[in-house]
Amino acid sequence: MRFHRIIVPTPFYVGPVNVYLIEEDPLTLIDAGPRDDASLEGLRSGLSRLGHKFSDIKRIIISHAHADHYGLAQLVVEESGAAVYIHEWDAPAVSAEMDYGSYRALLTLAGVPKETIDHMEAGYEKFRGFAHPLARVETLKDEDEILFDHESLTVVHTPGHTPGSICLVRTSNRMVFASDTVLKTITPNPVLSPDPIDQKKRFQSLGEYLVSLARIRALAPTVLKGGHGEDVTDYNEHFHRMFRFTKERQSKLVALLPKNGATAWEASMLLFPNAHGYHRFLALSETVAHLDYAVGESKLVIDRTGESENYLLPQPTLSQQYYRNDF
Ligand SMILES: [Zn+2]
Ligand SMILES: [Zn+2]
Fold first, then answer.
1. Which of 54, 123, 180, 216 has CA 20 to 30 A from 169's CA?
2. ∠ at Cα 294 (248, 266), nearest 5°?
3. How far is the CA of 227 from the centre of ligand 2 (A)?
4. How sure is the predictor about 320, in pLDDT bands with cuts at 50, 70 and 90?
């Protein structure tokens, strides 16, 4: 399988995004970069250096619904008529209909003040400006095969960073196009999002993410090509480092919680006191994910008496109290 990496600049803090061109029949792009003049120029010139133009592209696979990965896809479609594929759980987020209502409910539940929610909405709309909504997408499911003339890539659904994040696996040599699920130097943010099955619920991003990492491990990957930066060639080391990092962050967060508990918003201020602007939202996402994961592990409980949820240390049971008093 012939493929090339095209490094497309982005205006974001994360830096350039890796787009891959699979130079087989049908000519396929994995991701496209954000909607931005410099990114557009970067993608066009990257393709042209390889002897191709937008109109040659037959298919675009979107790894997940973030603007830095799908923002330019619609422009490529308009010049080429290429078919666009994305996992079914991320498909609603790349359409024009996506609205902020479900996020507003989740932010209220997390204890975010109303004026901050309005502020975050403005930031969300601005971020969405870096992507053309996609007029039409074909949806992917776990274990779908992306067929080429002589080979195929297998879709592995790896929810976590977003609900519909996917990896593409070349089974012949266990190479994985991992996008933002496995990044060499960045811990991917488990971005706060509604559950794709029940929009009123929060997607359990960190718990899902850790399961996804374990699933990738079972594939015994030889090399993982991330959405930003260089390849990961020692997945076992990466896997253990991510689990250690998660455990350490969880212990730190649980220890920081005041006696009477805290909302996710308050806890995010304790864990990331210096985050501003869009990073405040990412800090909140990270905190909610770790709090929910701690609840899943019975290290915290959720009390929901008011409009927002309060995370608390579990109260000792009656028998534990007797045990403590007696001895
Ligand atoms: Zn992403
Ligand atoms: Zn990214």
1. 54
2. 85
3. 6
4. low
